[in-house]
Amino acid sequence: MNIAWYAARLRRMGARELASRLRDEGLKTRWRRQQGRPARLSQAILEAGPAIPPLELEPEISDPIVAAAEALLAGRLPVLGRDTALPQVEADWFRDSATGIQTPREAYAFDIEARDPEVIGNHKFLLEPSRLQHVSLLAAAYYVTRREDFAALAAAQLRSWWSANPFLTGIHWSSGIEVGLRLVSFAWARRLLAGWPGVGECFEESDLARDQIFRHLEYLARLRSHGSSANNHLLAELLGLYVGASAFPWFANCRTWCLAAARELEAEVRRQVFPDGLSREQASDYHGFVLEMLMTAAAEGMLAGRPFSPGFHGVVARMADAWAAVLDCRGRPPRQGDTDDAFAIVLDPPDRQRRPASLLAAAGSLVGMSGWWPAAAPDLRSRLFGVIAAGCAETRGHRDRTIEARPAERPDLFPNGGLALLRDVEPRADELWCRCDHGPHGYLSIAAHAHADALSVELRHGGIDIFADPGTYCYLTEPEFRRYFRSTFGHNTLEIGGLDQARYGGPFLWLDAPESELLAVSGLEGGAVAEWRARHQGYARQAGQPVHERRVTLDRIARRVLISDRIAAAGSFPLRLAFHLGPLVTAELEGHVASLRWSGAGRDWLGRLSLPPALTWRALCGSLAPIAGWYSPAFGEKLPAICLIGEGLASGGTMLESSFEVTPVP
C-alpha cells in the first residue's frame, strides 16, 4: 500500500465525498457476508424487454461482423488491438494476456489490490475480456446470419463467465464501470439472440443468469463513483443500471432503478459536457466514449418508449457536432489526453480506424447529421439506432429542434473546452491542421485522464502527424513511462524550471491545475492567416512566478506555421522546449535547423523547422535515459519517434521563435 498516494488522494476529496466513501465502506463490510451467495429473489416477472426489429443489411455491413465472429469461433479474441486466446475455461477470465499474471480467483473483490501490477498484471488486458463485448458481437453475427454456432458460442461465454465470477468474488466485481458495461453487453446479446431457440434457456430460464443480472443491477443501484471520481466511470455505471433495468424488467425494483438512473443521467451529462460540446475530461478518446454511452442511453430510451428530454438529446447533438468538427482530412480526431480504446457497446468489429466515422454514423441516425459533417458509412449499430429512432415519434420532434439550434458551419473554436483549430478552410488532401490547447487542465479535482499539456500544439499535414501528441501507452504497469506520456516535457510545449505545469500525484492524480486563458484568436474561418494566442500560469508557484504565453500563426498560402513562446517573469529559468515528431517523419538536425521528410497525399514532402537559436538542440529517438522520443499509436503500444529538444536558460521577457514550412519534394 502506498501511504503517500492515499494521503494525497484524500486531500483532493471534499467532506461530502469522504462521507459517501465511508458509507460505501460500510456497505462493502456488510456485503462481505454475501460473497458468492445467490440472491434471495422473489418470483421474477420474466416479461421481455424492448425488442429490436429485423434488418436487411448490405454485405459491406454484415461481412466484417461475420469475419470477426469467425475469428472468435477459431479461438482468437482481439484485446486492445492484439489477438489473444478466447477464454476456454473459468481460470482464463483471471489471466492477464499481456503479462501472463493470474489474479486471485476466490478473494473478496474489495480485498484485491486493484492498483498493483504484481497482483493484477496489466489491468486493461485483464479486465477487457470480462466486459463481454465480444459476446454482443457474436450475438450480432447471429442476428445477421442466424447461424447456430455464433449463438452457441455467445451463450457458452456468458455461462462460463457467470460460473467463474460469483457475486463479489474476484477482480471483475471491484469496479463499477466494469459492472455497468457488462450489463450493456448482456442486454444487447439477449436482444440480438432473440430469434435463437436457446435464448430463453440461456437467460430467463436460467437461475444463474437471473442471479447474475440481479446482482449486477443491485451493485450499481447501491454503489457508485463519487466526487473526484465521478467522471466517465459514473456515466458507465448509470448507463449499465438504466439499460439493464430496461432490458431485464424481471425484478420488483427495476422500474425504480430505471427511472432513477435516467434522472441521474440527465443531470450528469450537463456536468460532464461543456456547452460547446466537448467532454470536460480533456481527453479526445474519452469524448468519443462518453458520446457513445450517451447515444446508447438515448437509443434505450427510444426503444423503451420513454425517451430522454430534448436537453439530453441536445447534449448528444452538441457532442456529435464537436466530434465531427475536430476530425482532420483523414477522419482522425485529436490525440489529447488519455486513450485506452474504451467502447460502450460493440455490435460491429471494434476497429480503431473506423471508430470516428462509426460514432458519426450512429449520431446521425439518432440526432441528425449536419450538412458540413464528413461522410460516414453506416454500420449495424447506426442502422439499428436509425430504426429505433424512426419508431419513436416523440424524439422526432426533439431531433427537429436540435437541428435548428446547431451550427450551420463547421466550428473551429471551442471556447469552453479551450480548443482552437488552425487549418485550411477548404478540403484538400495536403491539409494543414493544427490543434492549439488553452483549455482547463481536466475534470474534477484529480483530472484523472488529463495530461500536463497546456498551450501544446498538435500539427498534421494531410492527416500525418508532424508535431505529434505522443499518446498514452500505459496506466499502472510502467510508472516511469506513465509519467513521461502525461508530462509537460512529453508534449509540444514549454517546460520551465524542470517541472510539469501541474504537480504529479500518481497515474490518475494531479495535485493542482494550471489556469489557461485565451488572449486572442483570428482568421479561423478564412483568409490567408489564422492566429491564436494564449497563456497559462501553471508555473506561477515557482520563484519569480513565470507565466508562459504562446502565439501560433498559420499562413495558409505560404504553408507555414510560426510558434512564438514568451516568458513573463522576474529572474531566469532553465527551459526545455520539445517538438515530438510523428513516427512517419524523419529528421536531420544541424544546429538549430531540422530538415524533415515524410510521405502523404500521394507524394513526398519536405519540412524546414527553424528552432530558437538561444537554446541548445539535440534529437532523441527511443531513448531510455532520459525517457524521450516515443510515440504510442494505441494503448499498450509504443514506437520510437524523433523528439527535438531545446534546452537553455532564459530570463523574463525572452521570446523563442520556431518556424515550420512545408514544400513538396521536386
Tell me what the structure shows.
By secondary structure, this protein is α+β, with helices and mostly antiparallel strands. It has 3 domains: 58-227, no CATH class; 273-411, no CATH class; 413-664, Beta-galactosidase, Chain A, domain 5. The protein is built from 18 helices and 25 strands. An 8-stranded antiparallel sheet has the order 11-12-13-14-25-18-17-16, with no helix packed on it. The chain has a 5-stranded antiparallel sheet with strand order 3-4-5-6-7, with no helix packed on it. The N and C termini lie far apart (60 Å). The model has no long low-confidence stretch (mean pLDDT 95).
- Strands of the largest sheet, in order across it? 11-12-13-14-25-18-17-16
Mean pLDDT: 95
Helix content: 25-40%
Report the CATH C-level class of the largest domain: Mainly Beta
What percentage of amino acids are in beta strands?
Answer: 15-25%
Q: What is the topology?
A:
Layout: H1 3-11, H2 15-31, H3 59-73, E1 76-79, E2 82-85, H4 117-120, H5 123-127, H6 133-145, H7 148-164, H8 176-192, H9 199-202, H10 207-222, H11 232-247, H12 254-272, H13 284-304, H14 310-326, H15 355-367, H16 380-390, H17 393-405, E3 413-414, E4 419-423, E5 432-437, E6 457-461, E7 464-467, H18 479-486, E8 494-496, E9 504-506, E10 509-510, E11 516-522, E12 529-536, E13 547-555, E14 560-568, E15 572-580, E16 586-590, E17 593-600, E18 603-610, E19 616-621, E20 623-624, E21 627-628, E22 630-631, E23 639-640, E24 642-651, E25 655-664
Helix pairs in contact: 3-6, 6-7, 6-8, 8-10, 8-11, 10-11, 11-12, 11-13, 13-14, 13-15, 14-15, 14-17, 15-16
